[in-house]
Amino acid sequence: MEGKMKVAVMTGIGKMGFVERGIPKPGPHEVLVKLEYVGVCGSDLHYYEAGRIGDFIVKPPFVLGHEPGGVVVETGAGVTDLKVGDRVALEPGKTCGHCEFCRSGRYNLCPDVIFFATPPVDGVFQEYAAHEAALCFKLPDNVSTMEGALIEPLAVGFHAAITGGAKIGQTAMVTGSGCIGLVSLLALKAQGVSRVYVTDVVEKRLEKAKALGAFEVINAKERDVLKTIAEKEGGLDLVIETTGSDAAAAQGIGALKKGGTLVFVGYSPSGTMTLPIGKTLDKELTMKTIFRYRHIYPLAIDAVARGAVDIKSIVTNVFDFDDIQNAMDQSVHNKAEIVKSVIKIAK
Fold first, then answer.
1. What total number of domains does the chain contain?
2. Is the pTM of this model over 0.90?
3. Mean pLDDT in order along the chain per 10 residues (347 residues)
4. Residue 23 near residue 63 (C-beta atoms within 8 A)
5. H, E, C per residue of 105-165
6. Is residue 296 a part of any domain in this protein?
7. d(Cα 267, Cα 139) in Å, to the nearest integer?
8. Residue 306 maps to a domain
9. Which of 2, 131, 259, 329 sits a CA distance of 20 to 30 A from 46?
10. Domain that includes residue 219, residue range
């Protein structure tokens, strides 16, 4: 496909603009996707607000966005599993395929991954994207492209729940009810965990968690988390920590029963955490971490298609592509009201 496309670029800290670029041409085993929706991730907001996450530093102009859903409009040579008109969710990381992690199936740990919107790799706040066909997952008829865009964060939630060994009969808690906290809640419930507690200090987010099926929500500013869990459950089997805060992690450790499991998902702003390690040892807890996800997209799409996960309900705000400056500003400065934003690319 010949022509130009509109691309939203981060031109500086807290500044967005638009440029025209050529529509990419799909190479062998690639497809060209007309993007319809792209979710706004917390990492996008960190880059927009601070210009960096750890060692990853934005050098403007830079394109944010790594949660896309859209429609195939062109196929490259060798593509047999997708055709023009197929609606797809794009898994954003292309790995090398030959390192020890790729060969062992742990491709999310590939040191040479090319991941949308991770500097210096541009993201997909743009009208079209060429991507590996094997990383474009066809959506069933009853799954929209907006839901397709939300498969990326949902994959994180499922990876956390599966890593933690979530199963029927367990009790669990999610610390934090931002987007990743909410998808972790949804994944735990889809895995059969019936009683999932969710903690936060932002009431609007807790209301969303309750609406999505949390067994009980706890505002940590108003109630003692550990006392509440002790009274109602004694102790929990599993905690998924999504905030990156010392206090929330300590609450998770305190809420677990002996032999329980804590899965760390959220990044600490400083990159370090102080934990009550004595209590962790006394309880013989299992502590695990996750990085993104692997082999999850088909499972997550199936869960949405079957109605096991109501992923579209995490969205609180949909912004037009032309309004992306306002979308980013609102998402950064109005976190008490905006839980999950999505950019509608196609008109």
1. 2
2. yes
3. 96 98 98 98 95 91 98 98 98 97 98 97 98 98 98 98 98 97 98 97 95 98 98 98 96 98 91 94 98 98 98 97 98 92 94
4. no
5. CCHHHCCCCEECCECCECCCCECEEEEEHHHEEECCCCCCHHHHHCHHHHHHHHHHHHHCC
6. no
7. 31
8. no
9. 131
10. 157-289
